[in-house]
Amino acid sequence: MEGSISEPDVLSKRSKFVYSVGLVLNDVTSSMWFSYTLVFYNRVLNFPNAYSGYLLLIEQISNAILTLFVALICDRTRTGLFHYGKRKTWHLIGVICVL
Questions:
Q1: What is the spatial distance between Cα 60 and Cα 65, in angstroms, rounded to a whole number?
Q2: pTM of the prediction?
Q3: DSSP 3-state assignment of 40?
Q4: Domain chopping of the chain, boundaries
Q5: Rg for the chain (alpha carbons), in Å?
Q6: What is the pLDDT averaged over residues 12-18?
Q7: How far is residue 30's CA from residue 94's CA, in Å, rounded to a whole number?
Q8: Residue among 62, 63, 92 nearest 77 (CA)
Q9: pLDDT grade for 72, boundaries at 50, 70 and 90
Q10: ∠ at Cα 66 (69, 59), nearest 5°?
């Protein structure tokens, strides 16, 4: 019975560093996107500052809610596309939709 409990996998320092760099780059990209979006709303669409902020807030709240539904759909996927795995299949579909 003692052998049935497995120890958690430990990430190496290199893996932790690489994940950290990815997170920082993701946050930098998000910051640039939100800054550009605010400028676009204000200067191109001539929205008042308050409306621009409200739009960004609504976008973030809807993103948080929709992420939960996408996670539920992804978890209920039975098989992957071309033996690619269910998570990677959704990742591939997302990439194709963006292109």
A1: 9
A2: 0.60
A3: helix
A4: 13-98
A5: 20
A6: 89
A7: 18
A8: 92
A9: confident
A10: 175
